[in-house]
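Page 47, continued from p. 46.
Same chain as before, 274 aa.
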Amino acid sequence: MKQFVALTVILMICLSVADADAQWPRGKQKGYVQASYGRGTADQGYDPDGNVEPLGGVDDPQELDDKGLYMYAEYGLSETMTLVMSSYAKRLGVQTATDQTHTKGVADLTLVLRYAAFKGEKWVVSTETGMRVPSGYDPAATPPLGSGEIDFLFGATAGLSLHPTPGYLGSSFGFRARGGIISNEYYGHIEAGMFPHPKLLVRGRMDFVESTAHETSAFDVMTQVTEQGYLTVGPGLSILATGKWQVHLDARWTTRGRTTSKIGSVAGGVAFLW
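Result:
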């Protein structure tokens, strides 16, 4: 994946929209807006074979600091079609023993149409079609905010209510056609949530990305790479303050990967729905 490695995990936390209805259609003219702030750090990474090694190597260790503000929104175009939009402002920094460098700015804009193709009383299966467009940043910056290429995605999501048990299950699987020389990739997630109290949602989530190519060159946190793979897991907590306002907290850890950083991240945010 020709994109700065830490960016993916922070984005993934914020993409895990902390709403139990995230797999369901919003409904016509109904919406959801979430703003989150996240930060991740790492001093280790994975080589192309999945082995853990110090970022920058033993002779030149590096520390990664990734933080940013993420915006996410859903709007119901009809009873079955939902428009999903997201973007984020980032500050990516790398610290060595002798130097510190960082890049900041607005990264990619993602637009997705989610269509509820099949829907039952307790379940829904939806298709997703979308694109990710760069905002005009310099992809040659060090470290880069993104690849500078237009990507297309095609996928499906599924949601299951556990009623009368106060909980739900959700999942997704898809394919991203990456622009330029970047390897295409598969992605997906599995999540579960329970309501121990009507205003408290406890969540757990696992996400994965796997490129269709396997790169053999050494991993360098300061350069762009054409592919990577990773698996992240973590818990989340949501406070349903009112019928319209929510507060969300999430943590995520990379538990395995290749050509990526071994990053731990936290994020918090607020959401409004109507």
